[in-house]
Design goal:
Two copies of one chain form a homodimer. The first copy, chain A, has about 100 residues and is of the alpha+beta class. The first copy, chain A, has a single domain, classed as Winged helix-like DNA-binding domain superfamily/Winged helix DNA-binding domain (Arc Repressor Mutant, subunit A, Orthogonal Bundle). The first copy, chain A, is built from five helices and three strands; from the N terminus they run ααβααββα. A three-stranded antiparallel sheet of chain A has the order 1-3-2. The longest helix of chain A is centred in the middle third of the chain and has 13 residues, at about 40-50. The radius of gyration of chain A is 16 Å and the shape is globular. The mean pLDDT of chain A is about 95. The interface of A and B includes residues 6 and 67 of A. The structure holds a DNA duplex (30 and 30 nucleotides).
Chain lengths: ~100, ~100
DNA sequence: AAATAATTTAGACATTCGCTTAATTATCTA
DNA sequence: TAGATAATTAAGCGAATGTCTAAATTATTT
């Protein structure tokens, strides 16, 4: 739990998550997006992985990262615990006839 | 944005938010819940207020705190941006006939 | 007007965080 | 197998964070 909130506390890590919405990418491609040293990005990826917000898969020389649903669900559940108090805007539904 | 994620990063502050789900409370009552000095709690309340996750209202000698919807909605919106990728469990709907 | 109560502000200290450069591990290719 | 490429691990440093005690502020009561 702590690890997840810690992970999303940093703006760079949030940007990494947003970037991965477009699909899986390897560490190098991710690092290219930022004006920051590769070791720093590597460290951020590690924290996101520990938080189970991303998953790593080694593909030969490369390591591919992608979003990990399990971590997001935990945050989502925490967030839902406040819905007693608030009603958040619901997703629009469409009924086809 | 940063202030909100920072605010929910701390476990004490998350507990304060959970505590306030049961309704508004003054600073003293909130502090009673924790084995921590009042000034520390006061500081946590300040960060939550800056993040617009809680609102403070002075009532005579007391200061009453309650959850602030506006801050939660911002976080909710951020979270929704990942729904392209994931489907989170949807609230159940019932269609009456 | 003085005493009491609720809360915040100020100052100090140890810990954690995010960043960098340098060194290391693993894989691919000529 | 040597050299290049991808990525991580290690070591170190300044800044930010969370906590405390003590002092200050604001409001109520007597």
């Amino acid at each position: 739990m702590d690890a997840k909130f810690k992970a999303i506390n940093d703006p760079t890590r949030r940007e990494i998550l947003q970037f991965l919405v477009n699909g899986p990418q390897n560490a190098g491609k991710i690092a290219e997006q930022f004006e920051m040293s590769k070791p720093s990005i590597s460290h951020h990826l590690d924290l996101l992985k520990q938080a189970k917000l991303i998953q790593a898969e080694k593909k030969g020389q490369f390591i591919e990262y992608k979003l990990d649903k399990s971590g997001f669900e935990v945050i989502h559940t925490w967030f839902q615990s406040f819905s007693k108090y608030f009603e958040f805007p619901k997703p629009k539904i469409r009924i086809e006839i």
